[in-house]
Amino acid sequence: MKLYTYYRSSAAYRVRIAMNLKGIEYDSQAVSLLDKVHKSAPYLQANPQGLVPALELDDGSVVGQSTAILEYLEETHCNTPLLPADPAHRAQVRSLANTIACDIHPLNNLRIQHYLRDELGADKSQVDQWYARWIHTGFGSIEKELGQGNGSFCFDDAPGMADCYLIPQVYNAIRFNVDIDQYAAILSVYNHCNTLEAFQRAHPDQQADCPSS
User: Fold this and answer.
1) Domain total in the chain
2) What range does the domain containing 29 cover?
3) pTM for the full model?
C-alpha cells in the first residue's frame, strides 16, 4: 500500500501511528501542503478531495479521510486490534477519538487558519486565540475522561485508536504554543506513548519530507 502523507499533517500522523502499531508495511509518498501539491492535477486524479492522508490499496483504489482509512485498517488487519472487543468500550474509544476528529481538528487545520488570515483579515494573535480556544474546549472534556484511567494510554493497558488521535493533537497544541500544562492526564498519555517505537517512527520529525533545518 502507498500512503500519501505530509509530515506535519495530524490526520496523516494518526494513520502512520496506526499502521506502525499494526505492523503494516507501506510506501510513503510525501504531498507538500505548503507547496500546494495536494491541489495539483496528478494528486487530484488520485484523490479528488485534495487532502491528506490518502491510502492507495493493493488493487489501486484510493481511500481518503483518516477516519475511513483507520476503519479500513481495523477491519482488514485484525491481528492487532486498536478497538476494544466490548461494543460499549468501542463506543467510548470512538467518542474520545471523535472529540478530536470532529470537534478540534477541523476547526484548527491549515486551510481554516489560511481562511481566517487571508479572507477574514485576522492577525496572528487572533488566529492563535482561535486555535487555543478549540484545543481547550476539547482537551477539557478529554482530560476528565482520561483521569479515570491508568495514565499510560487513553483506554485500557495497551495503545489503541484513541491514542492514534490524541498524540498528534497534543503535538500540534505544543507546536502552536498552547499552554496545556493543566492537562496532566493528557500529558501523561502523550509522554508514555512517545516512548514506544510505533509512535516515535510516526513522529513528524522522523518523516522523509521533514526539512532538515
Assistant:
1) 2
2) 2-80
3) 0.94
